[in-house]
Amino acid sequence: MRNLINFFIRFYFFFLFVLLFSVSLILISRTHQHQRTLFLHSGNLIVGSVYKQVDHIQSYLSLKRVNEQLTNENTWLLHQTMASFMQKDQNEMVYHDTLYIRRFKYINAGVINNSVMYRNNFLTLDKGSNDGVEKDMGVITAEGVVGIVHNVSGHFSTVISLLHKDVQISVRLQKSNHIGTLSWEGGDYRTAVMSYIPSHVELSHGDTIVTSGFSTIFPQGIFIGTIGDYEIRRGDNFFTASVELALDFNRIANVFVVIDLMRQEIQVLEASNNR
Fold first, then answer.
1. What local confidence, expressed as pLDDT, does residue 44 receive?
2. Handedness of CA 160, 163, 168, 171 (dihedral sign)
3. How far apart are CA 159 and CA 255, in angstroms?
4. Distance (Å, rounded) from C-alpha 111 to C-alpha 61?
5. Are 138 and 257 in contact (CB under 8 A)?
6. What is the DSSP string of the chain?
7. Which of 33, 37, 80, 234 is the one with CA 20 to 30 A from 130?
8. Residues 48, 54, 56, CA angle at the centre, nearest 5°?
9. What is the CATH number of domain 105-274?
10. Pairing between β-strand 238-245 and β-strand 208-211 as defined by DSSP bridges
11. What is the rounded distance in angstroms from the CA atom of residue 8 to the CA atom of residue 3?
12. Nearest to 144 by CA among 211, 223, 46, 220
C-alpha cells in the first residue's frame, strides 16, 4: 500500500495533467458543436478499431474449434461416399434394405509430428488404440494417400509416410483401369513414381492416378495425382511414369484413418489359400 501511495505522489503532476486535460476536453465538446462532433467521430473510430481487433482475435482463437468441426463433417461425408460401401448382387431383390453394405469407416486424427526431408519419413497422430486405430490401417486426406499405420499406443500412433522407401501401394490409371505400383524414390516430396504399367497402354501427361482397391488398406478410387513424364527404362518391358502428387505432405494437419470392416474376413480367406 505504501508503494502505491508513493507511486501516486511521485507522478502527481502527470495524473493532475491528465485529469485537467480530460475536463477541458469535456467542457469544449459540450460548448462547441464542431469539436463535439469531431470528438464523437474520433471516439467511434477508436472504438470501432478496438472492436475489429477483438473480433480478429476471437476469430483466430476459434479457428481450432472450426477446424475440428470441419474435420468431423468431412469424416461423416467420407462415411457416406460410395467408396465406403461394397455392392451386393445386383440381381437380388431386397425389400427395406440396400444393395450396398458398408465396408469402410474412418477415424479423424490430428498430425502432431511429420517429416518430408528424409529418405524414410514418418508422421505421428494424436489418436491410438483407445480410439480404434490399429497397425496396418491406411491413412488418407481429402487430397490423397498419406501412408500406413506403423505402431500404436493407447493415445498415439505413428504412420509410415508414402515418402518412405518401404511403402508401395497398388494404384490404377482412372481412364483405362490398368494397374501399377506407386512408390517414392526420394528427392522431391511432391513427386512419386508409378511402375509396371504395361507397354501397350496409352499414356498422356495429366492422366489421373487413383488407388486400385486391391488391398484391405485403402478404398478404391482415392485420388493420388496425375502423370507427368513417362518412359520405358532400359531392360524393362513396362512404362515407368512420374506422378505429381496432389497431396502436399509438408502441410498435412488432419488425416483420416481407414477402417476396413471386412479386413479380417478377407485375410482369413486368403490365408486359407496357402494351406
1. 45
2. positive
3. 11
4. 19
5. yes
6. -HHHHHHHHHTHHHHHHHHHHHHHHHHHHHH-HHHHHHHHHHHHHHHHHHHHHHHHHHHHHTHHHHHHHHHHHHHHHHHHSGGGEEE--TT---SSS-SEEE-EEEEEEEEEEE--SSSS-EEEES--GGGT--TT-EEEETTEEEEEEEEE-SS-EEEEESSSTT--EEEEETTT--EEEEE--SS-TTEEEEEEEETTS---TT-EEEE---SSSS-TT-EEEEEEEEEE-TT-SEEEEEEEESS-GGG--EEEEEEETTHHHHHHHHHGGG-
7. 80
8. 105
9. 2.40.10.340
10. unpaired
11. 9
12. 223
Number of Cβ within a 10 Å radius of residue 205: 12
CA angle 116, 140, 201 (to 5 degrees): 90
* pLDDT tens track, the chain, 275 positions: 666 666 666 666 666 666 766 766 666 656 655 555 555 555 445 544 554 565 455 555 555 555 655 665 565 555 555 555 545 444 443 434 455 678 888 999 999 999 999 999 999 999 999 999 999 999 999 889 999 999 999 999 999 999 999 999 999 999 999 999 999 999 999 999 999 999 889 899 999 999 998 888 999 999 999 999 988 887 788 999 999 999 999 999 889 999 998 888 888 888 888 76
Domain boundaries, the chain: 14-61, 105-274
Q: 61 is written with which cell numbers?
A: 482463437
